[in-house]
Amino acid sequence: MTKEKILSLIARGEGVDVEFKESKSKLNRDVYESVCAMLNRHGGHILLGVKDNGTICGVESASALVKDFLTAINNPQKLNPPFYLSANIVEIEGKEIIYIFIPESSSVHSVNGKIYDRNGDGDFDITKNSTLVSNLYLRKQNSYSENRIFPYAQLSDLRADLIQKVRKRVAKEHLWREMDDLELLKSAGLYKRDILSGKEGLTLGAILLFGKDETIISALPHHRTDAILRQKNLDRYDDRDDIRTNLLESYERLMAFVAKHLSDPFFLEGDRRVSLRDKIFREVIVNILIHREYSNAYVAKMVIGNDSVTFENANRPHGFGFITPNNFTPYPKNPTIAKVFKEIDYADELGSGVRNLFKYSKTYGGDDPKLIEEDVFKIIVPINGGLVSKVKAEQASVQVSDQATPQATPQATPQATPQAILLFCNEPKSRKEIQEFTGINDRKYFKETYLIPLIKKGLLKLTIPDKPSSPKQKYVATKVKDEN
């Protein structure tokens, strides 16, 4: 959330989705009531260090307050079920305030055993109002297909290795690390009890995330994601991956399909190498997995064409038309599934994905992406421009130069550039292979001009670092690290 948007929230004042808390030196007790109420309603924004009238008073020891807040909401004895939120410290008018974004949850939450709902700018205890509580549960169940309960599904219908994989990927201090499988599923909101029907058990979200393939097909026969390459054979396809498995491995297979068929141009952001391809397609692939309307049998698909990559998935729209960073409001379609993806670092905060798409797409593919909110949600990412076209042109030049007479000077060959070398070394290559690729015969010149500088900058690494002179030595472009 930018400083400008926070100021606009303060100017708008408190309402059903905005709450101010002074919390000068400690957290107000009712902060957690507001968190609970917004999770149960439609989400919202909480600002700590702002008085009810909008005056910015700031907070003391902001980092300590954030730590206290996160500890409390991750404690099921405080907020049940826990919901993993983030709290950001922002400086405005020389004072620190804490901004907390609350998405709508697909679960019904309670604080200290009491259920709160949001109405106007207030939080109301509805625990003893059976009608309101029943309506709340009914609304959550009907709004989110991930909440459908399968009372006869057992833990044995899930893959324990996938649950363990999640346990290993979360942060070291995460509560899930110390929980057994059932406790983890309950904490994540993937094991529920419906007070209206009395049903209790694993949810569709649990089955989609961790289920064995036969369990998934039994619960959701139409579940499928189609990855297609269609560049030469436009009537059918050049390559295809028909994916009918859990969402965690679906994500990995879709990312592998992208890596197989789309180039990853060398790009520096400051002094750090960033994979534009992974930044862009990570966000889009996550979107079609965690924001899909799973009750709809429409087949989700990714189609890599000559000019663009098109993604489609069934959707329960909240508005219609084109989405941009300026008009986008984060709305989780499957909050529980999204939460698991976020906790294992497969997804970022809601809203950041759209910003990343627009931030990197023009550089990568030459134009902004198109995001279209309809009954079928569609994202179109351009790939016929920007750095991608530049790399294609360089590769074409390399092919031409291979057929031409060698240049008199080694640096004259078009492939003798750091960028071309790094692209060539996406897989480990020997010094001889790199020299042959660049057309440079002078070994000393090659090492001093290209090889050693790239190693010193950390852009190339040795496959046998403890034996730099080994005859089996090879060099590979460094793996890209996310900025998260």
What does this protein structure show overall?
This protein has four domains: 1-127, Schlafen, AAA domain (Methyltransferase, Cobalt-precorrin-4 Transmethylase, Domain 2, 2-Layer Sandwich); 144-221, no CATH class; 225-386, Heat Shock Protein 90; 405-477, Arc Repressor Mutant, subunit A (Orthogonal Bundle). It contains 16 helices and 22 strands. The chain has helices at residues 3-12, 31-40, 62-73, 130-143, 160-169, 181-187, 204-210, 213-219, 247-261, 276-290, 335-343, 352-365, 386-403, 418-424, 431-438, 443-456, and strands spanning 18-21, 44-48, 79-80, 87-92, 95-102, 110-111, 116-119, 122-125, 149-150, 191-193, 200-203, 225-229, 239-243, 268-269, 272-273, 300-304, 308-314, 321-323, 370-373, 376-382, 460-462, 475-477. The strands form seven sheets. It has a seven-stranded mixed beta sheet with strand order 13-12-16-17-20-19-18. Strands 1-2-5-4 form a four-stranded mixed beta sheet, with helices on both faces. Strand 19 (370-373) and strand 20 form a beta hairpin. Residues 398-412 and 480-484 have low confidence and may be disordered.
